[in-house]
Sequence to fold (248 residues):
Amino acid sequence: MSEKPEQDEERYLCIEIRNMEVFPGKILVVDDEQDIVEFITYNLKNKGYLLASARDGVEAIKKAKEFRPDLILLDIMMPNKDGMETIKELRSNPDFDDTAIIFLTALNDEKFEIEGLKTGADDFISKPIKPELLATRIGTALRRFRRDDDNHEIKMTLGDLEINKTKFTVFYKGVEIPLAKKEFELLSLLASKPGRVFLRNEILQRVWGTDVIVGDRTIDVHVRKIRQKIGVDFITTVKGVGYKFEMA
Fold:
C-alpha cells in the first residue's frame, strides 16, 4: 500500500484553507509555547490566512525561506535563537524587505520596544493575546504592502503617499512625483518600515551597493531632493545615526 504524498501545507506545518481561491495572506507563527501557537492559528485560520509555524529562531529562518510569508508573528523570548537575533538576520536579507514582522511579547518595557522597532519590527502585540486586536494589527501591517493580483503590482500606501514598487512611481495626494532611480529606492527603503531608524551604512549598502564608492554626503543630497520634490517632509534625520520615515 503506497503512502499518500505529503502536501506542501503539511511539509510547512500549514493549516490548509480548502475551497478558497483568495486568501488574505500567508503568516508564519514563531513561538516556543505550543498552546500559544495553537491559539493563534485557530483564530487566524477562521480569518482565511494560510499558516505555518516554527518553535524557535533557527527554525523560523528556515521556514521563512521556504514558506515566504507575508507576515511573521515572532516571539521574543525563545531558546536557540531569540526574537531579536532572528529579526536582525531576517532584516539583513533583502528577500524579506516586504515581509511585515510583529513581535509577540510578555514584556512591558518601553526601551525594549524601541530597540525592537529600530531593529525592524513593524509592531508589538502584548501577551495575553486578544484575538480581535491581533487580527486588526495584522490587517494594518499587511495593508502597507498590498499586492494587486491582476497586474502583479506591489504597492505601499501610507496615508496620501503611494509608492508603486513595480512601476517605480510615487504619488502624493493623487499627483505623480517624478523621482530619480536612487531617490525612489531610498524613499522606498525608508517607507518600508515607518518609524525604524536606518543606519547610514545600511542605506548605502542596500541602495548603492558595495561595489560603488559614494561620498559621505550622497544620502543627504538625495534626502533633500526627495523632500523638495514631494513638498512634505516624511524623512526625519536622526543626527549621527541615520534616517527614518514618519508620516507628517
Observations:
- The radius of gyration is 19 Å.
- Residues 150-245 form a domain with the Arc Repressor Mutant, subunit A fold (CATH 1.10.10.10).
